[in-house]
Amino acid sequence: MASSSVQPFDWQRILLSDEMPPLFLLEVGLRCFVSYLMILGALRVTGRRGVRQLSIFELSIILALGSAAGDAMLYHDTPLLHAAVVFGVVSGLYLLFNRLTEKFPKFSDWLEGAPVLLVEEGEINLQNFNKQNLTQKELFGEMRQLQVEHLGQIRRAYIEATGNISLFFFADEDVRPGLPIWPERLTQERRRVEEAGPHACCRCGHVQELAKGSLAECTVCHHDAWITACNDPRVT
How far is CA 204 from the centre of its chain? Predict the structure, then answer.
């Protein structure tokens, strides 16, 4: 429809469409349902980075409703009743999925994600870590914001459904030698040990006693780059 033929306050155009029959509302509902599932799938694939405070489920609601509202507000050929169907279907899905997550914990874990253990007893859990859309640099950056100096201070670290990192610390007397995570220390990795003592694997954080001049592989992940381990207590 050309803009010159648009009549202000044409309620037939505002509420329905001159080109689409009322039965098209059912197709709008179907399109909304399929698009909503595609949004959820895309967010599950892209992972948790950048989501923060909102869960994937909540973010998908915002995206779906935001798009529907934007089209209805900006384009004269998008009837308001079509947007109302979108809001109704998405809101219904929200209520339905909320009920399902209450009754079926596994469904909740699939939809919103479950907490994942990333660091255990001062070492990176590579089996879990490698399944996340997360780099070691990003993980260490999150830890530094919580005043972590090395992995030996960490008893457990989880990535939550929101993408936030939750940390549980050793008591000062239980802190063990660990992989330092300061950027300037991370650049000091070596394959040949320059000084005897405890050294931390640069990949998983496992600590081994190494002799001066030795070339060794990590007994956990078989990586061969090392950094002198740090055992300083956490200072807050």
Answer: 21
Those residues whose C-beta lies under 8 Å from the C-beta of residue 139, and which sit 6 or more positions away, are 118, 124, 129, 157, 165
Q: At CA 133, angle to CA 127 and CA 135, rounded to 5?
A: 80
The helix or strand, by DSSP H or E, that contains position 218, with its residue range, turns out to be none
Helix (H, G, I), strand (E, B) or coil at 144: helix
Number of residues assigned to the chain: 236
**Closest CA relative to residue 213, chosen from 191, 185, 189, 187:** 191
Does the structure show a pLDDT above 50 at 1? no
Joined tokens for residue 164: 């936030």
For the cut 90, the answer to whether the pLDDT of residue 202 exceeds it is yes
* Residue indicated by tokens 């384009």: 75
